[in-house]
Design brief:
Blueprint: E1 9-11, E2 19-23, H1 34-42, E3 46-49, H2 67-82, E4 88-93, H3 95-106, E5 111-115, E6 141-143, E7 162-164, H4 165-181, E8 189-194, H5 203-211, E9 217-222, H6 235-248
Parallel strand pairs: 2-3, 2-4, 4-5, 5-8, 8-9
Antiparallel strand pairs: 1-3, 6-7
Length: about 250
Amino acid sequence: MIIEGTESFFRPGNGKKEAVLLLQGFAGNTAELIPLGDFLAKQGYTVLAPRLPGHGTKVEDMLRANAEDWLDAVRDAYAVLHGFGRDIVVVGASMGGSLAVLLAAEKKVNGIVTLAAPVFIAPEQGLSALPPKEMLSPADFTPEIKRSLENVPPAANLVYDKIPLLSVYDLLEVIDRAKNCLPQVTAPALVIHGKADTMVAVESAEYIYANIGSARKEIVLLDGAGYLLPLMEGREAVFERIGTFLCQR
């Protein structure tokens, strides 16, 4: 059963502007993208945010999905928007940014925006202590800190309280594949990252900016901003920056 508020969501916009494909992060849910989606829809953009397999239901479902399943869900959503006959921009938060890179490397998109997209995981996350994959079983989990963010969609706080360690390896696969695909991305790119991010190292943004194949690219590093850019206080400034990028390409 899907957790209420974490379903895929669609905003029709005014039918005159591009379509924006919004992609959620690992172990998060689509509710994290509702404020950004609503902002873009008010600007006239058609918006679709697909729920990734294994997310927004129960944590055990993550073990039934893998990196290719997540990418297939993104491809399906792209096909839906493509059916509207409009150009598509892809915007991804965290692992969603990595999926955006993979999509932009194989499909025609008119732009790409990454928000705290990972190339390097911050040392605070203790990734070096992750056991080898062959030593793990479906019963191995890592606990997650409960969210209690204010002024966000209620379902944005309904994330899993633990994560399968085997699924972390699928996350790492997505990151590695996206890293290798960066030179193949040629669409205009906007890379946004918080300097105070303790989940994804800020060096990730610098790597993406340096290695993406886009002729037109920008990087924005935000003082004092952390990991959850679409939900943070002051997120409207990030949304405005994305809106400016969409208008100026």
